[in-house]
Design goal:
The chain is mainly beta. The chain contains one helix and seven strands, in the order ββββββαβ.
Amino acid sequence: MTKDKYLLVTKYPVTKYKCGLKAGDRVCLKKDLIVKDHRNRPTGDIHRKGEVWTVLRGSKEGRIDVWFRQPDGKPHTWDDTPKSIEEWFEVVKKEKRVRTTRKFTVRFRRK
């Protein structure tokens, strides 16, 4: 059995991944994702189709993977290949926010 090697990572300069995703992008799952443990056995946790994840900045240390933040706030890595990302995720279009500077006053009259 080989021993795991850990690498302390403190810098996350990668903002654009090979697959085309950028830090800050939001993606949703195209199909249910069953979470498995290190022995490839299901843990009972499932990320459902349509769940939205946020793309985070990545590290240049070691193997470069896409970093995501799941809806529960936990980080998750994914293989940085266009084929894998395209199979599992769809980019969520950013909604335009309409800002208004007008203030409306509602006045009531007594009868």
